[in-house]
Design brief:
Blueprint lengths: L3 E5 L2 E5 L6 E5 L1 E3 L4 E9 L5 E9 L6 E2 L5 E6 L12 E6 L5 E6 L5 E9 L5 E10 H6 L11 E13 L3 E9 L4 E2 L19 E2 L21 E7 L4 E6 L4 E6 L4 H4 L15 E3 L19 E5 L10 E5 L9 E5 L24 E4 L9 E4 L5 E5 L4 E5 L5 E7 L4 E3 L3 E4 L23 E8 L2 E8 L9 H4 L18 E8 L2
Parallel strand pairs: 15-16
Antiparallel strand pairs: 1-31, 2-28, 3-5, 3-30, 4-29, 5-6, 7-8, 8-9, 9-10, 11-12, 12-13, 13-14, 17-18, 18-19, 19-20, 21-22, 22-23, 23-24, 25-26, 26-27, 27-28, 31-32, 32-33
């Protein structure tokens, strides 16, 4: 088989008034590509590169920049044990200078990391992992049928990893949806009950286990979690399930033992759902007419001090008959004690979002939204590799499309200019003509065992500096030019596979 692929990254940026002055972080990835040269970029509003990181494998989801300037990057492993949309398997940590200081993989016969990760204040990392269950294990808890030829059912787990050394981790907390099941088909099993009476539990028979023609194909992908977020003040975790069109909140204050049960933690409910929203028919309190979400992604809380603080914001992929996506901001109803309100026979509210943005964009894959300190919202359209910022009045004030064949951006995030310690410059001033760097990467396969790679870096021969190299030098330092980065450069490599 012979093929040629060229990936060209060009800035197509529109900037208007009222844009939030910050730094945007994103990782563009090419469809069908996992191995090669991949980058994470931190850019200013004019798409000038503040910093970049190189990766040998494509992104599983979005990267995260920590206040100590390290980068957390979830990536696709070479041979995942379960391969579905959003597959990952690896998590790396890089220094600001691009040094790999920790790398860990969760890809085995029990667990397969996928999609998102979430850095925690204590230095640990939450990850989403498919958890393999055999058909016999599923039938033993009341599952009526397995809808795939592999005779497996991949459930979901949330694992909290404590990084150890440069390539190891301890699982210090874990939650498994398999511990919170209910069914109404076999009265002889201990999890038998009326589905509508237990919105805190998951109906084991809701939805297909693969074979539904969706992103999971016939591989047993049951719920397809695609995002995880953490609220430090509440010590709660938010999750998103694409296949069940629903979001959830669970208690993180539990021990692992409590998380496997129905008591304990700040909520007193163990690992049961504290809140769920988007598709009440999953727990018998609604119909298709009551479904408000369709294949949503990117759930997160709006931070304290931001307009809408404490509310949830998410990306609803198929908002209008598959022709449009939308961003929803919702206000979960609360009791006086801070628990989530639900009437005895009604679904969880609200009945509609408190704010939404829609029109002119649609993505089937990933996507996400983050509220910004000034009230604007940063939105990512994955399929079109487009990031844009809108005001609360739904005016688009900034947009950028990453160009290149089948390029995707899972989600992007924007940080304050002082996020890394205050006074962080957008780029190095002086005589550098720095307004963006264009790199071209490509490869050619003349045969099944031969691969030739070509690259043109800094195509327009821009003069620029890496912030990490010159941050301590004054603008007029005589040695500043010694730290200038390479101009236009051509490189080639040849690989033969035996």
């Amino acid at each position: 088989m012979r093929y040629v692929s060229l990936f060209l990254f060009i800035s197509i940026t529109k900037l208007f008034g009222d844009v939030f002055d910050g730094m945007t972080l994103y990782s563009p990835t090419q469809a069908g590509s996992a191995n090669g040269s991949f980058y994470s970029y931190l850019v200013d509003n004019d798409m000038n590169i503040i910093n970049s990181w190189s990766h040998p494998r494509g992104a599983a989801s979005m990267p995260y920049l920590l206040r100590d300037s390290t980068l957390i990057y979830p990536y696709k492993v070479a041979n995942p044990t379960m391969n579905s949309g959003g597959v990952g398997g690896g998590i790396s940590i890089y220094t600001w200078d691009g040094e790999l200081i920790w790398d860990y993989q969760v890809s085995n016969q029990t667990y397969q990391h996928h999609h998102d990760v979430e850095p925690l204040p204590n230095g640990n990392i939450l990850i989403i992992a498919w958890e393999k269950k055999t058909a016999s294990e599923a039938y033993a808890v009341g599952r009526e049928s397995i809808d795939n030829s592999l005779n497996v059912m991949w459930s979901e787990a949330i694992l909290e990893l404590e990084p150890v050394g440069t390539g190891d981790a301890n699982i210090v907390w874990e939650w498994h949806i398999w511990d919170h099941l209910i069914q109404d088909v076999d009265p002889y099993l201990p999890n038998y009950g009326v589905i509508a009476d237990h919105p805190e539990l998951q109906d084991i028979n809701y939805g297909n286990a693969g074979g539904n023609g969706g992103p999971g194909g016939a591989n047993g992908d049951w719920k397809h979690f695609n995002a995880v977020a953490y609220n430090e003040d509440l010590d709660q975790i938010a999750l998103s399930s694409r296949h069940h069109d629903e979001i959830y909140i669970i208690d993180h204050s539990t021990t692992t033992e409590e998380a496997a049960g129905h008591t304990g933690g700040n909520s007193g409910k163990g690992g049961d759902f504290l809140y769920r929203w988007g598709n009440p028919q999953t727990y018998g309190r609604g119909s298709n007419a009551d479904q408000l979400l369709d294949s949503q992604h990117g759930i997160n809380w709006i931070p304290e001090g931001y307009p809408g603080e404490g509310n949830l914001i998410l990306f609803n992929n198929n908002y209008s008959n598959n022709n449009s996506s939308a961003v929803f901001e919702i206000v979960p109803p609360l009791n006086a004690d801070g628990s989530y309100l639900i009437d005895e026979i009604q679904p969880f509210g609200p009945t509609e979002p408190v704010w939404l943005h829609t029109g002119g964009f649609h993505t089937q894959m990933q996507g996400g939204a983050f509220r910004l300190p000034n009230g604007n919202t940063l939105i990512t359209d994955c399929d079109d590799a487009t990031m844009f910022e809108v005001t609360y009045e739904n005016e688009v004030v900034w947009s950028h499309q990453e160009s290149g064949g089948q390029t995707f951006i899972a989600r992007s995030q924007k940080y304050d200019l002082d996020y890394l310690g205050g006074g962080f410059p957008v780029y190095i001033p002086g005589d550098a003509d720095y307004n963006g760097v264009i790199d071209i990467f490509g490869f050619y396969n003349p045969g099944d065992h031969i691969e030739v790679r070509l690259a043109i870096e800094n195509l327009t021969d821009k003069k620029y500096f890496r912030w990490a190299s010159v941050s301590q030098l004054p603008e007029d330092d005589a040695e500043l030019d010694l730290y200038g980065q390479s101009g236009r450069a051509l490189s080639a490599s040849f690989k033969y596979k035996f």
